[in-house]
Amino acid sequence: MTKFSERAGAVEVPKIFQIKSMNDDLRNAIWNFLLSIHEKTNYSSYWGRGKINYWSFTTDYISRYLLKLPADELPIYNDDHLRKWLKNKYYKMEWYEIYDLVEMLCSMPFHKEMIKKFEITSSPDSSEIRRWVPAQLHAEFNRIFEAELSEYRFIDKNLVPIASPAETESIEEAIKTTRRLGLPGAHIHITTAIQLLAKRPQPDYRNSVKESISAIESMAKQLAGEKSGGLAPALQALVINKVPIHKSLQSAFSKLYGYTSDENGIRHAILEAPTVGLDEAKYMLVSCSAFVNFLAAKADAAGIPISGN
Question: Distance between CA 77 and CA 53 in Å, rounded?
Answer without folding.
Answer: 8
